[in-house]
């Protein structure tokens, strides 16, 4: 039975077609529209650790954090006083004095920002690369 012949009443077939079209339209909406402007879904965020976060390391981490684009989950510095400002910016991040202890929780983060002096940078970078960290 055609809907034109049915004097303006909808048939089951018309209803199912309309419902299917509405469902299809809803599923093709980009996720940033549903989350609002600037929304970054948790699945698109990296968990980042930082070594040598006092001084230059603080600004490097800010770039990696980029207003919530990533998560800073672990921080390491031998000088707590120099790193205090960085620790205050990321209060939920785990703190370490020895990068070798941070390697033990390597499953919790995706990459490492190493901001130590040159004479220690290579050794620390090699340790994390051997763990498969970027």
Q: What is the number of E strands?
A: 4
The value of Rg in angstroms is: 25 Å
Report strand order across the widest sheet. Answer: 3-2-1-4
What amount of the residues lies in strands?
A: 5-15%
The largest β sheet comes out as: 4 strands, parallel
Portion of residues within helices: 40-55%
Q: Describe it for me?
A:
By secondary structure, the protein is an alpha/beta fold. It has 6 helices and 4 strands. It has helices spanning 12-27, 31-35, 56-65, 80-89, 99-103, 118-130, and strands spanning 47-51, 71-76, 94-96, 111-114. A 4-stranded parallel β-sheet has the order 3-2-1-4, sandwiched between helices. It is elongated and about 85 Å long. The termini are far apart. The model has no long low-confidence stretch (mean pLDDT 81).
Question: What is the topological layout?
Answer:
Elements: H1 12-27, H2 31-35, E1 47-51, H3 56-65, E2 71-76, H4 80-89, E3 94-96, H5 99-103, E4 111-114, H6 118-130
Parallel strand pairs: 1-2, 1-4, 2-3
Briefly summarize what is shown.
The protein is an alpha/beta fold and 134 residues long.
Entry keywords:
13% strand; 134 residues; single chain; 6 helices; alpha/beta; elongated
